[in-house]
Please model this.
Amino acid sequence: MNISTIVFLLLSLMAVGSALMMIISKNPVHSVLWLILVFFAISGHYILLNAQFLAVVNIIVYAGAIMVLFLFVVMLMNLNADTEPIKNYRMQLAGICSGGTLLLILVLLTNRMDVEQLVQTNVGDAGLIKNLGMSLFKQYVLPFEISSVLFLSAMIGAVVIGKKEETIDQNTNS
Amino acid sequence: MDIKAYITLSLVLFTIGIIGVLVRRNAIIIFLCVELMLNAVNLLLVAFSKMHALSPVAKASANFASDAQIFVFFIMVVAAAEVSVGLAIIVMMYRNVHTVDINFLNRLKN
Amino acid sequence: MNNTFNLVWLIPTLPLLGFLINGLGRKSLSKSASGLIGSAVVLGSFIISIMTFIQVKQGHTGVIHFFDFLRVSGLKVAFSFQIDQLSSLFLLIITGVGFLIHVYSTAYMHDEEGKDFAKYFAYLNLFVFSMLLLVMGGNFLILFVGWEGVGLCSYLLIGYWYENNNYTDAAKKAFVMNRIGDLGFLLALFWLISKTGSMEYSQVLNAASLAKLTTFDITGITLLMFVGATGKSAQIPLFTWLPDAMAGPTPVSALIHAATMVTAGIYLIARSNILFSSALITQQVITIIGLATAFLAASIALKQNDIKKILAYSTVSQLGFMFLALGTGNYVAAVFHVLTHAFFKALMFLGSGSVIHAMGGEQDIRNMGGLHKHMKVTSITFLIGCLAISGIPGFSGFFSKDEILAGAFGYNTIIYGVALFTALMTAFYMFRLYIITFTGKFRGTHDQEHHLHESPAAMTIPLIILAILSIIGGYIGIPEVLGGHHELAHYLSPIIPTAHHSLSHQTELMLMGLSTALVLGAITFAWIRFRNFKAEQSNGGLSSFLENKWYVDECYEWIIVRPIKKASSLFQHILENRIIDGSVNGVGKLVNYGSRQLRWLQSGQVGAYVLLMVLGMLLLFVIQFFVS
Model:
C-alpha cells in the first residue's frame, strides 16, 4: 500500500461523500457548495494522474465559473430549504432502486473484464501543458476555433432567451 | 493503480448523478447532477489517457496519450456553453411559472 | 294380391302430401279446398289400408324395405315398413277414424280464418302421417320417429289458438311430459342396441335374441319402454297433461287424445309382447300403475263439470284399463279395447263438440240440460257411446271390458275387485254426464237457448257412423263362452301368442253377469241422483278433494316446478350475473385500470421520462452482456 493508493482512496472518499451530500441536502446553495467540493476532489485526482493542465482548468472553469453562475441563479430565485418541493416517496424509491441496480450491473460488468492495465500516476508527460498545447494547436486547431463559434452562439442564445418579453400576460406556447 | 479502480470510482459518481436526477425535483439541482455526471466521465477519460500512456503505442506517436485529455478539455468547453444556455432557460421558465418544480413544468404533456 | 304391397308407401305419403299442400298454400287456398284436400288424402290412405288389411287377412304379411336409414359401424337401421296383422289393424283405426274426424272438422272449424283453417288441416295431416309411421315402422327407430312426430303435432294442435297463453302453456306441458317419457324410451333403445345390436322387429322380437338378454336386461329395457309409454299414454305420474290438453279444438281431442296418439304406448307394448312376457317385475309394475291410474282418473271424473274434462279423465281411466290388461298378460284384450275405445270415445268427443258448438262455446255442464229436445242425433249417438263405455251387453265396450276384467280376475282377485269398482265409477260418471247434459231442464241463458240447434250433416254423419261402429265393433271379439270364435285373437295370433284362459266358462259367465248387474245398478243410481239436477255448491271433504284432481298438479308444482325455478334463478344470479358477467366486465375493468396506469407514461413529467430512460438503459445492459 504505497502513498499513491492512500491518497487515491482519500480523494475518492471525499468525492463520493461530497456527491452524496450534494444530492441529499435540502438547501440548493448547500448542494452547489458540495459540488464544488467534489470538483476539488476530482482535481486532486487529476494531479495524482499528473494531468496538471486539466486539474487547474477544472478548478478555474468548473468550480470557479460554472458553479458561481449556478450560485447567482439560485440566489436570484431566492431558493432555500423552505421552497423545496415535497417529493413523491414512490418516485424517490423507484429512482434509488433503479440507480442502484444500474450501478450494480455496471460494476459487475467491469469485474468481468480481464483488464489488468495499470495507470501511470505521479509521472508522465502526457498531461503537461507543453504537450497538450502542442497537440491542441497542431492537430486539433480546427475544433479549437469552432469551439469559439460555439461560445459565441451560446452567448447569443443566452441573451436572447433571457430577454424580457414585451407582452408578459400571454403564455408562451412552444 | 489499477484501471478498474478508476472505472469503479467513475461509475459510482456517475450513478450518484443519475440518482440525483431521478430523486430531486428542483430543476437546478438536476442540472447540478448533470454536471456531476460529466465530471465523472472526465475523470475516466483522464485515467484512460494515462492507461494508454503506458502502452507500447504511446512510444511511437508522441501525443497518443494526450488525445483523451484534449477531449476532456472540449467537454469542459461544451459544458460551460450548455450551462449558460440552460440556466437562461430555467430563469425564463421561472419568470413564467414562478416555480422550478419539474412536476409543474410539464409542457411536454400529450 | 301381392301388388298391394307396392301401394303401401302411399299410405303415409298421402297425408304428408296433404300437409305440404295445406301448409305451404295456406294463404291461397280456400276453406273448402283445404278441407277437401285434408280429408281426401286420409280417405285415400284408408282405402289402401283396407286393401292391405284384406291381403293380410289372407295371410300375406311382410317387411317392405325402402332404403338403409343409418349405417354406423355394426349398426344397420333400415327404413322399412312391417305389414302384419297388428299394424294393419291399427292402420284401419287411424285412417278410418281419422277420416271421419277430418270430415267433422270441416264443419266444426268453419269459423276460423282461411289460413288458420288450412294450418289446422296441415297439422292434422302431419299428425296422421306421423302416427302411420309409428305403426308401420319395421324397427324401433321408425317407431320412435313417428313417436316424436305425434308428440310434436300434439303440441302444435293443443296450442292451435296460440293467442291464449293458457292454451300454449297446456301445449308446453304436454310436450315436456311427453319428453320425459321419451327419455326413458330412448334409454331402452340404447340398451337394446347395445345388447342385441339391432333394432329391427324381425331380429329383436324373437326367442333367439331373447336368449342374449339377461333378466336384468329385459327388466330394464321393458321398464324404460313403459316409462316412455306412461308419457305418451298418460299414466301415473305423467298424466296431468291430458286434461289440460283439452285446450285444443275438440276434433283434435277426439283424434289425438282418444283414438290414436294415446294408444301409441299400447301399440309399443303389444308389439314387444315377447319381451314383456319375460319380464315379470315389469308386468307387475304395469298392472299396478294401470289400475291406479284407472281408479284415480275415474274418481276425479266423478266431480268434474267441464264436459271435455270429464271425457279426458275418462280417457286416462280407460287407458289405465288397457295397461292393466297388458300387465296381466292379456295383450289381445288391450288391443281389443283400443279398438272399441277409439270408436266410442271419439264418438263422445265429437258429440261433445257438437254440444259445445250448439251452446256457442259453453263447456260447463251445469249450464246445460234438456238438450235432447234440440239435438236428437247428437243425444242418441252420445247415449250409445255411454252404453258402450259402461259395458252394457250388446255394445262393443262390453266385450272388450269384460275380457280385461276376466284376465284381471285370473291374475289376482283384489285387482279384479278394484277394477270392477272402477268400471262402476265409469258407468256412474258417464251417465251423470249424459243425464245432466241432455235431460232435465235447460239451465243456460236465454241467448244460448235460442241458439240451440242440431249440428250440420258434416258433423252428424260421422257421429252416426261411429255410433254404429260402437255397437257392432265388439262382434269381432266374441269370446268362446258366448258361442263366438274370438276372431280378433285368431287374427292377431302370429304377433301375439294366444293366451290360455285359466278360467272356466262358468266363472266367466258369472263374472259377466255380476258386472252387468252392478253396472245397471250404478246407472240407476245415477239416474236417481241426477234426475233433477240443480247446480250444487261444492261440498267440502272428499268432494273437494276429487274436484281438485287429488291436488296432483299442486304436488308437482311444489316438488318439481318450484325447485327447478329456484335452481334456475340461482344459476341466473350466481353463475350468470356474478361469475360470467363479472369476468366479462372484469376484463373491461382490467383494461381500464391498465390504461390508467399506462397514461402515466405520457404525463409530461420529465422525472418519469428520465426514470424510464434509466430503466431502458438498464435493460439494454442486461440483455447485451448477460444474456447473449
About this structure: Chain A touches chain B through 88 residues (CB under 8 Å). The helical segments of chain A are 3-24, 28-48, 52-76, 89-112, 129-138, 141-162. The two ends of chain A are 58 Å apart (CA to CA).
